[in-house]
Amino acid sequence: MTMIDNIFSQLPSPKVTSFGARSTAENEQFSDLLKRPGLHIERIVSTGQTSPPDFWYDQPTNEWVLLVQGEAKLRFADESEARNLKAGDYLEITAHRKHRVDWTPSGEITIWLAIHY
Amino acid sequence: MTMIDNIFSQLPSPKVTSFGARSTAENEQFSDLLKRPGLHIERIVSTGQTSPPDFWYDQPTNEWVLLVQGEAKLRFADESEARNLKAGDYLEITAHRKHRVDWTPSGEITIWLAIHY
Question: Among A16, A24, A40, B96, fewest CB within 10 Å belongs to which?
Fold first, then answer.
């Protein structure tokens, strides 16, 4: 049996505030695509959210992330400026390297593929 | 240090034969994106190739594959017909499940993301 799904399926609606300002009202959407021993593949969909102020992801596992669609500013605590990511960009984020999402475009669907290992 | 690369970088030129027929003259392009213990992430770029006749991939590890761009017909030895894949489709191919690529479009760049674990 072959289960085929699509990474663009069941996307949330993009959310734009009345003045085009960034929306942070709703959360990012996390979907498990595969869970196996020592491996977790998930889709993360942003529709204009940023990480809360002073929040840093501090993850116990390594992560490889691919920006499938959209754009984002990814900030590392050990760097002074955010990295600008465009569609197709990928990078490794080692365990416990603190990072946050400084920006994703409001009213657009930004899709991340995250592989935790 | 943050190394950011892009999955659409350094793509081969698409190859079309004089009558628009499928090109099988050149090989698919395999690029390692990440190699870690128990995990291998690679990009595979097809430009119209198919697996050779009667060839089946028979891999010792499990694989999760995402069709990032393009389209393909993926055939499993235990199924009578090929699966039609479009951009964004993903599936798991368990170890030793024999499969082959029956078709990718000639003159187009088809990009696979394969995660071996």
Answer: B96
